[in-house]
Amino acid sequence: VRATAVVEQNDASTRAQKAMPRGALRATLVADAAAAAAVLDVKLNNGKRFPLVGLGVGNMQHERITQSIDVAVRHHGVRTVDTAMGSRNAHLVRDAAARTGERVHVITKVWYTHLGYERTTLAVNEALAELEGCGCDVTVLIHWP
Fold this sequence. Notes:
By secondary structure, the chain is an alpha/beta fold. It has five helices and six strands, in the order H-H-E-E-E-H-E-H-E-H-E. 50% of the residues lie in helices and 16% in strands.
């Protein structure tokens, strides 16, 4: 029920976009993201909760990653950070997530050039090694259908 209310709020924000100045729209979207982060999660088979709202940093400028993760996690309740091996920013994600002091779930993706059992296994191990020490839960996906 709470998730439905957030979706309806987001739909109202989307409809109002054209009438808002740029700064007001950004503030509304951030507020909506914080509300969504607080309620949008699913229960996994192992009983843990998995957040459905996260911060994507794959194409973000490296200088902005640390501050963006800090603000999203500490001030907006975001607990998932999404990146990809091809972005070459895992070290920044690891360090920023560790500094928040919160349990953060990092999703990274094996690039399509690393398909096949051996190459995928090596890439997964590399991704886990790059994120080691952040105290994060890590999910590694294959970034190609």
